[in-house]
């Protein structure tokens, strides 16, 4: 069975084609700059031995429909083709950012689901509209394939009221849906399950803190396999320091920026989402650049990294208290998987809480899961590669088989 997984942004389509029998992606790619004069499409065919052949195109991609048509052509025609025609694709799995309270599990998309995703647009104005566009385009190109929505928020729907409510007038929750939703749920769920497999423990008995450090970043407290708290909130702005987002700040900050600097709501929105985080603190949002700056003696970059890691440590402490018993702490995503320095700094000084890192093992690059705690560490510390697309493909397969 072949399943196509699509993650549509406002000017991009990220995609992977999975062979579910072989349990692996056979193609992945990214169409970018959709709607611009010259679009970019990178299409990689992945062999069974992991070798990839890369095909790059620089042509105008007028809209998402044209982009997906081009992707289907690449999958089906020419020397790089991997399937005979598009009917070989049994289903399409879509990443949808905000499911609000309506979706606790992946769902077959019908008109009701589309309406519900639309209803959640006010909660995710930047993400849900392109996600919807991806769904509509895929429905027209694959009219016979079931379309499945997998929501970033779904895993966090088990968070109890005492953790998802903000201390605001209650009607803001009941009428206006203001609450913590949390994001990156597909990734947190995926690595928690991989951690359970690795520790040979039923997921229903696993307590773990999962730390997803990519361009966006979030921490989740997982109790008995379920999300019970997470650092992102009503929007992905809350919580950890990120590439360009501030994470936690004093909620009175916007009042000060308005009265003191005469900033508008739009200015503040753009500031806190696009110009803060590591970029605001030291001028670089790409963590590799930050680490290079530190290497060359940049003190401001070092201070920024200290802020970044201190925030992670604070959440580990808080979620340890929330969970009571802790089996493991898991690092994942671009930074979590690739930066031993950040893992070491975030865990430093937590030995008294049973978290001791093995510095040598932490520096080793390992395919798959790397256990980086010392032998006598009470709590396991793991690096677990995330794979949100594979998780979406598996959920899609499970649903269409059911
Ligand atoms: P996204 O949220 O876009 O999926 P990723 O999970 O790909 O993001 O993470 C992107 C981040 O990972 C970037 O800040 C990048 O600099 C960082 N990163 C990638 N490789 C390394 C590395 N070797 N060392 C440190 N940071 C890295």
Walkthrough of the structure:
The chain is of the alpha/beta class. The protein folds into 2 domains: 150 residues, Nucleotidyltransferase, domain 5 (2-Layer Sandwich), CATH 3.30.420; 189 residues, Nucleotidyltransferase, domain 5 (2-Layer Sandwich). 38% of the residues lie in helices and 20% in strands. The protein contains 15 helices and 14 strands. Strands 5-4-3-2-1-6-8-7 form an 8-stranded mixed beta sheet, sandwiched between helices. It has a 6-stranded mixed beta sheet with strand order 11-10-9-12-14-13, sandwiched between helices. Bound molecules: adenosine-5'-diphosphate (ADP). Adenosine-5'-diphosphate binds next to helix 10 and helix 12.
Question: Mind sketching the topology for me?
Answer:
Layout: E1 2-9, E2 12-19, E3 24-32, E4 40-46, E5 52-57, H1 64-76, E6 89-96, E7 107-108, H2 111-119, H3 128-141, E8 147-151, H4 161-164, H5 170-174, H6 185-199, E9 208-213, E10 217-223, E11 226-230, H7 253-261, H8 265-274, H9 277-282, H10 287-295, H11 299-323, E12 328-332, H12 333-338, H13 340-347, H14 359-363, E13 370-371, E14 380-383, H15 388-401
Parallel strand pairs: 1-6, 6-8, 9-12, 12-14
Antiparallel strand pairs: 1-2, 2-3, 3-4, 4-5, 7-8, 9-10, 10-11, 13-14
Helix pairs in contact: 1-3, 10-11, 11-13
The structure holds adenosine-5'-diphosphate.
TL;DR of this structure?
This protein has 15 helices and 14 strands.
SSE arrangement, N to C: EEEEEHEEHHEHHHEEEHHHHHEHHHEEH
Return the average pLDDT rounded to an integer.
Answer: 96
List the total number of helices: 15
Tally the structural domains. 2
Radius of gyration: 21 Å
**CATH superfamily membership of the largest domain, which one?**
ATPase, nucleotide binding domain
Q: How many strand units?
A: 14
CATH topology of the largest domain: Nucleotidyltransferase, domain 5
Reading off the top of the CATH hierarchy, the class of the largest domain is best stated as Alpha Beta
Please bin the fraction of helical residues. Answer: 25-40%
CATH architecture of the largest domain: 2-Layer Sandwich
Q: Kindly, what is the distance between the CA atoms of the first and last residues, rounded to a whole number of angstroms?
A: 14 Å
Biggest β-sheet: count, sense, barrel?
8 strands, mixed
Our estimate of the beta-strand percent is 15-25%
How does the helix and strand content classify structurally?
alpha/beta
Cα shape: globular
């Amino acid at each position: 069975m072949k399943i196509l997984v699509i993650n549509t942004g406002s000017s991009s389509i990220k995609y992977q084609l999975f062979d579910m029998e072989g349990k692996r992606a056979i193609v992945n790619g990214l169409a970018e700059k959709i709607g611009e004069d010259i679009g970019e499409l990178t299409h990689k065919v992945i062999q069974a031995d992991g070798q990839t052949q890369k095909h790059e195109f620089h042509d105008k991609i007028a809209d998402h429909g044209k982009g997906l048509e081009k992707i289907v052509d690449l999958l089906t025609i020419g020397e790089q083709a991997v399937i005979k025609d598009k009917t070989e694709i049994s289903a399409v799995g879509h990443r949808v950012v905000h499911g609000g309270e309506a979706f606790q599990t992946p769902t077959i998309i019908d008109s009701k689901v589309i309406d519900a995703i639309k209803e959640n647009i006010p909660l995710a104005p930047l993400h849900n509209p392109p996600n919807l566009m991806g769904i509509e385009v895929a429905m027209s190109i694959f009219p016979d394939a079931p379309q499945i929505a997998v929501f970033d928020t779904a895993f966090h729907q088990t968070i109890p009221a005492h953790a998802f409510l903000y201390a605001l007038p209650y009607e803001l929750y009941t009428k206006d849906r203001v609450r913590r939703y949390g994001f990156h749920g597909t990734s947190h769920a995926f690595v928690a399950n991989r951690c359970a497999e690795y520790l040979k423990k039923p997921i229903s008995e696993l307590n773990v803190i999962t730390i997803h450090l990519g361009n966006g970043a979030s921490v989740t407290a997982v109790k008995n396999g379920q999300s019970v708290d997470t650092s992102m909130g009503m929007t992905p702005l809350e919580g950890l320091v990120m590439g360009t987002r501030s994470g936690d700040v004093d909620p009175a900050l916007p009042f000060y920026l308005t009265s003191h600097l005469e900033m508008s709501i739009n200015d503040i929105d753009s500031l806190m989402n696009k110009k803060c985080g590591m970029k605001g603190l030291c001028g670089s949002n790409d963590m590799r650049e930050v680490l290079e700056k530190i290497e060359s003696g940049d003190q401001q970059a070092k201070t920024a990294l200290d802020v970044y890691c201190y925030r992670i440590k604070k959440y580990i402490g808080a979620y340890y208290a929330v969970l009571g018993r802790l089996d493991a702490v898991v690092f994942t995503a671009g930074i979590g998987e690739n930066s031993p320095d950040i893992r070491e700094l975030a865990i430093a000084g937590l030995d008294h809480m049973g978290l001791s890192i093995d510095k040598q093992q932490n520096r080793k690059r390992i395919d798959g899961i790397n256990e980086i705690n010392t032998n006598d560490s009470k709590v396991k510390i793991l690096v677990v590669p995330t794979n949100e697309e594979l998780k979406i493909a598996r959920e899609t397969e499970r649903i269409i088989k059911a």
